[in-house]
């Protein structure tokens, strides 16, 4: 491992009302990794992401970011893109993007006026261009297509320059063609900003194409009498080299080995 | 084609909208006509002309005793009470509703109390209000507030809870404080719902207003109706009922127009009634 450890997960347990979801999850992730997370439905992928976001607190275990425990609530150092409801429907595209700026500049009203607002709107011009929404700057999210909305959501999540970006099935609702465009955008942004990315996905091809590291969540222990008795953990942790990406054999291997993981992709 | 997929054009829409109104007016005119055939002095179903005369008399002929134009005076007084009452109720709905919906500790402390309080039949509080605030404006406005605010607060709090958690989390990751989330995220998302709720609450608000005016008042639309009831003046009563309905309708449409104008984003995806 050439880079230093960005995020360290140590013996994490998570249960809801006594039903374990995750157990014994340990993981060290170096800076600049792109971890893709796959697994069957209900095996705790999204729960894991929520724990990384501090949206929920682990029952046991620690998560360290740069060597210090995660804050107890979501903070700007970790950006998030959800599958839905990521952008604010009452704000136009441009307003969505200057919002973080407004929060920082104006603690009382949370709003910029006049020249300060114009300046903020100017600053996001290149970003709008980058995500191809400069023509749609004054439209509301409801007037955008699904792909445009997710491009906006990604751009908005990157405004605060988070060192860690979390993506919860961000492209799950998009058409395959649009998905490929989004992959390219996300990949380029990741390269440019040197972020550490965690992306939950149902699509194993996507996981191999984008990731530098593939994490498979599954249950290792199984009680047929009580299917809920045990939680899931990381069963496969595969490094993906650049030339492996899109390698059909590898995809087949991984999906063949773990039929569960591809079952609902 | 299935009937759910058939959409009327503009003109058809208008015509279809008019039909029920025309039906009721014609039915009334016919009934009134036959009643007056039997007894030309019938007071129960006065003719449309007579109602028109009553309207003219109340609106444009100064009252013999006080010299006031009664309809406008009544309308002004009633709308004043209704307006102040609903403004106070809306303000309570926004402040308490957001506090309850957004901050778990406030929710734990106020939600059960509010749920209980909102079940008190408001009209039973009216005597208490009259005793404590006297027979003036305060008790009438208070009745409207007490009658409508609890439901509006609960509805607003629920609307805040219905905001997808994802958006709140996203705002946190963008560095928003609680106050900023309230002003930039919660308030704008909830205001259109407060307006919808206000439109629905106007119905009970009118009931409380008319009741309070009927019991103790010297002006107002409700006062007038219950005053002329003693003389069986159906022409005035019916005119006032139509007038009140018209006022309520206009208020409702104005609020809808306000919502569509101020919160256009909220009306992009759905038809609104």
UniProtKB/TrEMBL annotation, chain B:
The chain crosses the membrane at residues 12-31, 79-103, 110-135, 231-251. Its main location: membrane. It is a multi-pass membrane protein. It comes from the Bacteria. It is found in: Cell membrane. Residues 79-255 form the ABC transmembrane type-1 domain. Keywords: Cell membrane, Membrane, Transmembrane, Transmembrane helix, Transport. Belongs to the binding-protein-dependent transport system permease family. This is ABC transporter permease. It comes from Roseibium polysiphoniae.
